[in-house]
Amino acid sequence: MNINFAILALAAIVPLLIGFIWYHPKVMGSAWMTASNLTEEQLKGANMLKIFSITYLLSFLAAMSIQFMVIHQYSVYSVLANEPGINDPTSPIGMYFADFMQKYGSNFRTFKHGLLHGTLTGVFLVIPIIGITAMFERKGFKYIAINAGYWIISFMLMGGIICAFA
Prior knowledge:
The chain has helices at 5-11, 14-22, 25-35, 40-43, 48-70, 73-80, 92-104, 111-136, 141-165. It is an all-alpha fold. The protein folds into 2 domains: 5-72 and 108-165, no CATH class; 74-107, no CATH class.
C-alpha cells in the first residue's frame, strides 16, 4: 500500500486551523489561559513561526499515525508485509493481495468512518495522555477538557480527511 503524503500534509494543517479557532479568547482561549495559569504577558513575545512550524511537523507525525487507525486495509497489509513476493504483483501473494484490495480496498473508506476512528483515537489515546500529564502538572479537569477537546476535534477531522482521501 502506498502512503499519500499530500493528504497527510493536508491533514496536518487541521490542528493549526482548529487551534486558531479553539484557543481564540472568545472560544476557549481565556479559559485555557486560566486553567494553564498563564497570562497574556507570559504569552507575548513568543516566536510564533517556530511554534507553528513545530506544530505542523508534529501534526504531520500524528497524521502518519492516524492513517493506520482509520484505514483498515493497512492491517491486512501489515499481516502480509513480510511474505516473500508481497510487492511483486505477479507472485501468488501479490496477486492475492491485489485481488483482496480490488474486492475490499474501499470498504470503510469514508469521511464519516474516519471521523469515528479519529474520535475513538482522541477518547482512548489523547484523554489518557493529557490526563496523566495534567495530574503530574497539578492541572484540573478544565485544563484536561479544553486540551483534550481540541485534540479530539482535530483527530476527528484529520481521520475523516485521511480515511476518505488517502
